[in-house]
Input
Amino acid sequence: MTKPAPNGMASWTSTIYSLNRGSVEDELERLAYNHFNIWTPLTDGLLPAHILSSLQSQDRPRIADIATGSGVWLTTLADDVPPRSELIGFDLDRLKLPPRPPTPPIPPPPVSPPLRPEQPTLDFREQDVLKPFPAELRGTFDLVHVRLLALGLKAGDWDAVLRRLYDLLKPGGWLVWEDTGGLYMAAFPPSRAYDEFWWATMKHDAKEKSTKATLQLLKPSLTAVVEDGGEETVRTMEDVSRIERDLVRDTDQNGVRLGFDYFWNWGQRPS
Output
């Protein structure tokens, strides 16, 4: 559900997904930057080579992008698929979806019409992945793509979502899902205050670089652990100093960097 938001925010969706919290312009910039500078370089392309090759061998492949956001993945893919491809992006938040291009008036045909190369069709629709897709879409896609949906799902959602995505595929169609491991704790029921805290913290940490930001949080966080009685190997302030010293050594001398797991999974519906 998309609601008008205070304080200049464009939208606040009452789901556990907490990244969609800035203005539309900020969100579009974030999604584009991450697409071109983080996610696509991590996988060295938009799709596994054998799946892209399969799409390129078809005359009119039909492709769905789930939780499409701004549609940046889908519009980038349009350059790599056959000219008669049909590409449809689905997202719960309609505010970031690209506008539908206006339908131009049809002029009378010229005596000798010039040849125009066909281009893939792009369409964007509002759709909650937690709700059933329209029946006419089921079994019609050669590829269903998902990126970074884990942040918007609870443990009990996964089976139903996977079944809905599977049902969208034609026999022989591919599901490609790229996602991270756990990055943070989510608030449920959704909390606007928590999301504002988390979004501001993430933006700050990105500017400071995650390793430096973690070092800044380490001492006060572990001090609280000690004051509450300690946990396993962290029971005294000497333990806190030891961990801080060793982490500085590992990052400065041993090249340790903080990061996250990123998974690229795919599977094919039996023919």
